[in-house]
Design goal:
alpha/beta, Helicase, Ruva Protein, domain 3, Dna Topoisomerase Vi A Subunit, Chain: A, domain 2, four-stranded parallel β-sheet, two-stranded antiparallel ribbon, 6 strands
Length: 209
């Protein structure tokens, strides 16, 4: 059925399916909208995609996204230098920032350690984190000069837990307090719909009122 599309549109559909969570049908719908909406939309989209690809890169310190050598968070003198939050991807930084409950620094791993999927610590930014923290110990990283806590905010998957354990064991000698974000029932959630592991973690992570 896909071969019925003109060659240029077929190529567009194929490229769109390479995006996360975009299947053949979704790609076809997007391609149809782009080619039938007139040139202005398609040309503008092509222009902004090119600009974003050329200008956006990783922060030299935390590996968040930026157009400058340092991202807006690392270069903000008002941020709390005493706390460093470790996350898997840039979208996690955005989510935490939108919550408004955290004002420290970040380190973005760009993935998790997953031996079964062939992803080693060298393929993500885990070793960069370890080097960064040891640089702090030597006084080479002024952004981390006063770090008093590292918060591991990796996902609650097997890979996320394994990555958190790997980081913890790798920096144990630095004696920097390490914590993991709380895990359990979401706000507004009901007990009867929670799975066993979520309930278990909720009880493990309980706190005094």
């Amino acid at each position: 059925m896909g071969s019925l599309y003109p060659p240029a549109m077929r190529r567009l559909i194929n490229e769109l399916t390479r995006l996360p969570a975009i299947g053949e049908k979704s790609a076809a719908r997007l391609a149809y909208h782009l080619v039938t909406s007139g040139q202005p939309l398609s040309l503008t989209l092509a222009e902004v995609l090119k600009e974003a690809a050329e200008k956006t890169h990783l922060c030299a310190v935390c590996f968040f996204l930026t157009e400058a050598p340092l991202c807006a968070i690392c270069s903000d003198p008002a941020r709390n230098r005493a706390v460093l939050c470790v996350v898997e991807k840039p979208a996690d930084v955005v989510a935490i920032e939108q919550s408004g409950g955290y004002r420290g620094l970040y380190h973005v791993l760009h993935g998790v350690w997953s031996p079964l999927k062939g992803v080693s610590p060298d393929q993500i930014k885990v070793n960069d984190l370890i080097k960064r923290l040891y640089a702090k110990e030597r006084g080479d990283d002024p952004l981390l000069a006063q770090v008093e806590e590292i918060i591991l905010a990796t996902s609650t998957t097997v890979e996320g837990d394994a990555t958190a354990l790997y980081i913890g064991s790798s920096i144990e000698s630095l004696n920097i307090p390490l914590s993991r974000i709380a895990q359990g029932l979401p706000k507004g959630g009901e007990l009867e719909y929670a799975d066993q592991m979520t309930l278990h973690m909720s009880f493990e992570g309980r706190r005094r009122m």
